[in-house]
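STRUCTURE REQUEST FORM
Protein name: Amidase
Source organism: Acinetobacter radioresistens SK82
Requested output: structure tokens
Priority: standard
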Amino acid sequence: MKIQEYMQYDGLGLAHLVKNKQVQASELLELAIQRVEIANPELNAIIIPMYEYAQKRTKLDLNGPFAGVPFLVKDLFQEYKGIPTSYGCQALKKLPYIPEFNAEIVNRWENTGIITLGRTNTPEFGIKGITEPDAWGSCANPWHLKHNSGGSSGGSASAVAAGIVPVAGAGDGGGSIRIPASYCGLFGLKPSRGRTPWGPGMSEAMHGAAMQHVLTRTVRDSAAMLDATQGFESSSLFKIEAPLQPYSEVIQQPPKQLKIAFSTVSPIGTPVSKDAVNAIQHTAKILESLGHIVIEDQPAIDGMALAKDFITTWFSQFSYMLAQIKQQTHAKDQDFELDSLALAAFGAQTSANEYIHNLNNWGDYVRQMNYFFDQYDLYLIPATASVAPRNGEVTTPSWQKPILKMLIKLGKAHYLVRGKLVEQIIRENLKWVPFTQLANITGLPAMSVPLYWNKENLPLGSQFIAPFAREDLLFQLAAQLEQAQPWISKYQEIKV
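Status: completed
Returned output:
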């Protein structure tokens, strides 16, 4: 098998070749490594190789739906015992941090027969919608190397889009699967709260707003992976209802006629690009051609209030995590990025009453979405407000940096988030990605589907949100859209 042939298959397709002894797992690994050597110097997607581990694994008698398929994990929470892990952070990279356990999600992936050959680039602690950590550098977008791959699962998205592997681990706490899926032209689904495990280190992340899954080129790979990883574990807080039918079977059945609401208006009042509007209008036309009913409407939710509640939780949780890492590693402020220190300083000033009030508001958003889904089957919005930004375009203005440094040193950084400045900070932080946090706060499943590329051949995903635990409905529609407008051939246009 040649590299170009290898790149044409999805994960299940490669596993089928291995099962039928048309190719060996060791051969696939060698091809994946060759592709790394060609593409990664341009992309900077893989930052911690695991070649020795992968080569040993090819010698095992592997079983499962992805037996023998090359795979990558995100360098954030997806720990492998004995493998250096940095969370995109200079402090953990220098230490180095070497976990003493496998994450449960990794164990479930391993049980599918995958062969993990490396860890992928992510922003420091996954706190940004782009992947440009000081510790590792920017991760380029394979569609256009001057643009970013998105975040926080940017390295995984870049590697999958470039054909290094057909499937890679990802996570989504505020859009971190759907944002890079949108920017890199991939299929990316965020599962419902509690669908996939967080153990053994945690029972859940950010009150269930953050979930782990994969980025893929095909719908069927994502469905098969969720079949393999979904379900209760000993660390889970509660049991989510199991699907009535495997997702891999669900996608074989077309959905019934769906009533789908859509909107292209930013919930926080920020600009939405012509590309994002065009992407949704294009998707709406496809949906109508398939017999679905498409109506412009949106839930009765104050988008800025939701964004404030998201930011409050996000900053507060991050402040706690950074404090824990400092205590465990004895790292100093200079070992972390300025933006990380600023967010942690903001979060540290949140009172318990404010935090609980904010968390209680989450229930209001859940209720409003339940009312909304009494009228509609799905909600369609852009995954991102524009195509991928250029590398270095999303950054703290240079004039703000010395002010931030001084305020952090004086313990006064929280002054920046008082009064009207709060809304300004929210708009500045989320203007590129204002559409994804709704599904995280409400715990609803959501997906980005690659149906649109602009004149510069940069993709932008269409995001669908479904009622709780209805991943089956998302997968059904995604498979139908994939058949109506196949996107797999688009990857041949990537030059890297």
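Reviewer notes: The radius of gyration is 21 Å. The chain is about 40% helix and 10% strand.
Form closed.
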